[in-house]
Amino acid sequence: MASLPKIPEYKAEWAEGEAGRWGIAIDMDLCTGCQACVAACSMENNVPFVGEHDAGYGRQMAWIRVERLWEGEYPEVKATPFQPVMCQQCGAAPCEAVCPVFATVHSQAEQINLQVYNRCVGTRYCANNCPYVARVFNWADYSNYPEPLANQFNPDVTVRRRGVMEKCTFCIQRIHKATDQAKAEGREVRDGEVQPACAQACPADAIVFGRLDDPESKVSKLSKDKRAIKLLEDLGTQPRVTYLKGGYHGNLG
Amino acid sequence: MTDKLSRRDFLKVVGAGAATAAVLTGCGPASRYVTREPYTKMPEYNYNGQSTYFATTCRECAAGCGLIVRTMQGRAIKTEGNPYHPVNLGKTCARGQATLQGLYNPDRLRNPVRNSRGESYQTGEKDWTEINWDTAIEVVAQALKDPAGVQFLLGPAPDHLFDLVREICKTIGAPAPIRFGALGMFEARVTLGEAARAMFGRPDTLFFDLANADLVISFGANFLETWISPVAYTRGYSKMRKQRTRGILVQLEARLSQTAAKADLWHPIKPGSEGLVAAALGKLYAEQKFGIAPAAFEAVDVAAAAEAAGLQLEALENLTALLLDADRPLVIPGGAALAHEHGLEIAKAILALNALLGNLGKPGGVFHTPVSPLGEEYRRPASLREMAELVERMKAGKIKTLFVHGVNPVFELPQALGFQAALEKVPTLISFATFPDETAMLADYILPDHHGLESWGYQRVTDGTGQAMLSGAQPVVAPFYNTKSTVDVLLAAAGLPFKDEVEYLQNQVAPLVEQTGGFYSAADLPSFWALFQQFGGWWKNDVSLSAPNAAGATEKKLNLKAVEASEQHEEFHLLVYPSPILAEAGANKPWLQEIPDPMTTVMWNSWIEINPHTAEELGLHNDDVVRVVSPFGAVEVSVYKYPAIRPDVVAIPFGQGHTAYGRYAEARGINPADLFGPNFNEAGDLAFADLKVRIEKTGKKRELSRLESKLGVYGEGMEEH
Amino acid sequence: MQRVFELLKKKEIQLLLLIAFMVILSGGAWALYQTQIPPEQPIQFPHDIHVQLQIQCLYCHPGAQRQASAGLPTQQKCWACHGQLRKYWDPAAPVPLEQWPVELQKLAGYVERNEPIPWVPVYIVPDHVHFNHRPHIAAGFACEQCHGDMSKQKVAELQQTINMGWCITCHQQNSVNDPQKRIKLIDCGTCHY
């Protein structure tokens, strides 16, 4: 009998050396901030809307947001490049360590962070510990839409209830579907065959998804680009999302 | 508290028992009495529990992107781009993604109704009586019997309904149908078309080959937001950046728009100075390259132009250097740049600059888009002056029956045009609206059309692609309500020899079967029709963009007016831009409402953008409600201190401020079109960018919901923490 | 707080609490029981007869082989056979509908009214679980390993308690020799998303 995988004693032990399995590369030079990814993600993953009042409290539920910041003062003012931020699916995720009920666990198979809705009791420790503010909490049963709006729900994704934390899953339902199909056809998943909703919608092709452990895939080539940066990398979180900063011209002004 | 257990408490306890059971069994009992109802007769393409995908055309704006809609068990659950469709190549924008929230909108009109126009007409209250479709068709048929008094007002897309209505109007002798959309108004499309006619002899919209340009100077063209065909131009932008030498984008406009945020260089030039800047650039470029400036640019005083634009002379020289450096430079005119009194001259100046740069008909340059494969010449939507003429005809009582489809004139037209007041002189208003919009609420009859995802059709796509094409639409779900396709209604009412809409469409696309060079070909009409549905349209494989006729383009003298130098300090230029997320018709989709505006991150409301320094001078803070007063109207709206806007300009997005249109849109924000006056440019487009407004304090405060934190921005809000 | 303790000392309050506890407990037990009995079906479909006639499971539930849900046959499929069973429908001597077996009369009724049959699912998982038939069939499992011997059941009955323990036990047993497979089979994200 072959030995079973050793259960790591502390985070850094197993996190070390993992290339990661799935990853995203986002070219910030191409991202136009059009929010198509936000809409696509919400439609695919049954992300509810919360209304003006709750949105003002910062309870907006989107799993991906497009950030921009201001630099300088008029007339030398600049908006920083648009930066879509979703769960970075950290190799060593700060959120996982703090969940008292193991609702936030690391998927060894897909090497992403999971949120197990049925285990979640809503302590919100994970969201507090997430340096990317990638997690959102169901403060109410937002999915109780007036009829017939609920018809749009995607049957492949759980509709979450009040008191449950949620976040980007890299569209794991699409990953499963593609791997399942590939397995049935007796092959590996091809590069580009599976795309999360955000990457599929992106009109500027700024979001690229694929296998990080395949050196030939588009995403692993991009994540080794000289423009590649990772968000808050010095925290040691091993994010699986790579950002390609700036263009080649620098500042013309 | 009594010691006895009341009956109510007892029920509570029993309820708790059931709840416990739910927890113990993992929600088991809750789903126990769900039933699964299989099809009685399975559609042959379907498989129980597996998705079926249908190709259709997006109807959220007139760009005509192709969609693939995922359906499951007869419900549409996700839209994606059609990867073969030449306009969007598999991509979508946020509005296309949210189209399902229109289909499933709880406030859709479900039955044909008659609205008795009594007192309710004034108050906007509903006094609706349901009618049946036979009555409805009879009403339409009666109206068509008086052809001189009939007027059709349609949406901006050149689709099969437009063809049918045009045919009907021609047959019965009614005035030709008018197409209109607010986005066309904000893009000043007619001005661009008229300038193209004046310079190149053809009044088409032009195609700007962003993808192959290495320097793009855009005069406020918001092509990454709503301009003409945003998904196509975003793809072009992406390609431009990915070239071996990365293309440069320069944006010249008073406010840093979402598009300007992507520019390498942004100059906040004064509204109205665009033509002068273009001419000055032309003069500098020509003098340095050829030693002599052509007639078009000769007269311009470069230093004065820089002064008028609020630029340093050095900045113009730098731009000229960039132009001289570039191999494939391109200049794009935006909507707000042309929406001035002398907008046509500005458009000509910009096109002349392109001619001077020698990019007409070359990669990375300006082209005429191909004519649609159904062999029609280009027919543009109405300009605002033509809409004003329509209103005049209404006021004169010449229109007995006004049919409205796919457009919401009560909301989209400037209030000063008086469309709503003129409606009182129109005896019968028949609306084919899918949603209870402002115009439908005032209609005598509402005969709701299917939602775009429930209906058949085709649309000519003349923008955003170089391939001649016809985009096809088909129902992806069966209609949910007692709605009826407007084409079917008109076919029945006009007594045309077609059985239904599909037969009409097949008859229309029949000439395409003969055409060669298509994406597919078929031997006969039925197989062609099947492929037409399968691929979501028909298009030619080859790009057939044609070069504009450049002869003499730079030799015509331009009549550019100087910008007024002196201004009253209290007056601000008002820049109204279509909201990148809501555009003209997105306000009734809750997810679009909740998507933060890309630049301000405001959700669910309207705001006015004011430069922080100006706000300080006026003593205004974020979320303060101000009264914006123009000579034609006034609105009250919350302040957003916008760091990247000229101090003498304020901006309000267009898209909110509905008084009807369903629960998610109603009574939310303000409509800046209320501030516009009936001022037109030479081409007949609304000169909305000339408008000046006053800002008055109200002392009120209304908090805007924003995604970004308000804490610490300009040091505000910190005192409470 | 003091008042509550005093109240708790009273006999009748204790009795009431006991009754309340019993009611909750029995309510829970009743609901649990409800999940474990075959539900009332619109038609008492006899699986056994069909299996004895050697009709393959996948003939009526073909989805099991290629997708998540096994699927229910359309009544068109039912009627494809039943509509021409000579026993009842001999053109020479047709048996009137009233003399058909009761359950077949019901089927005929649904077909006539063109109404879907409202079947009640027997093997159910909660909404937050995504069960997929295909990999199980692909891995070589026979239907009866989970659904029992259908030749001995009339309407489908639950053959096991469907809970996560049951899933995981089987997943573990089937990945004893393959650590890679085990990682996949006991991963939360395999079923919960």
In words, what does this structure look like?
- The complex is a heterotrimer of chains A (253), B (721) and C (193).
- Chain A has a single domain, classed as Alpha-Beta Plaits (2-Layer Sandwich), CATH 3.30.70.20.
- Chain A is 21% helix and 15% strand.
- Chain A is built from eight helices and twelve strands.
- Chain A has helices at residues 11-15, 36-44, 52-56, 94-98, 125-129, 172-184, 197-201, 218-222, and strands spanning 22-27, 65-67, 70-71, 78-79, 83-85, 104-106, 113-115, 136-137, 165-166, 207-211, 228-229, 241-244.
- In chain A, the strands form five sheets. In chain A, strands 10-1-12-11 form a four-stranded mixed beta sheet. In chain A, strands 2-5 form a two-stranded antiparallel sheet. A two-stranded antiparallel ribbon of chain A has the order 3-4.
- In chain A, a hairpin with a 6-residue loop joins strand 6 and strand 7 (113-115).
- The radius of gyration of chain A is 19 Å and the shape is globular.
- Chain B is of the alpha/beta class.
- Chain B has 26 helices and 27 strands.
- In chain B, the strands form seven sheets. In chain B, strands 5-4-16-15-14-6-7 form a seven-stranded mixed beta sheet.
- In chain B, helix 12 (274-289) packs across helix 15 and helix 23 crosses helix 24 (525-535).
- The two termini of chain B are 43 Å apart.
- With 193 residues, chain C is an all-alpha fold.
- Chain C contains twelve helices and no strands.
- The mean pLDDT of chain C is 86.
- At the B-C interface, helix 1 and helix 2 of B face helix 2 and helix 6 of C.
- Distance between the terminal alpha carbons of chain A, to the nearest Å? 67 Å
- Total DSSP helices of chain A: 8
The rounded Rg of chain A comes to: 19 Å
User: Rough shape of chain B?
Assistant: globular
- At the fold tier of CATH, the topology name of chain A is Alpha-Beta Plaits
Overall helicity of chain B: 25-40%
CATH topology of the largest domain in chain B: Rossmann fold
Give average pLDDT of chain A, whole number: 87
Average of the residue pLDDT scores of chain B: 87
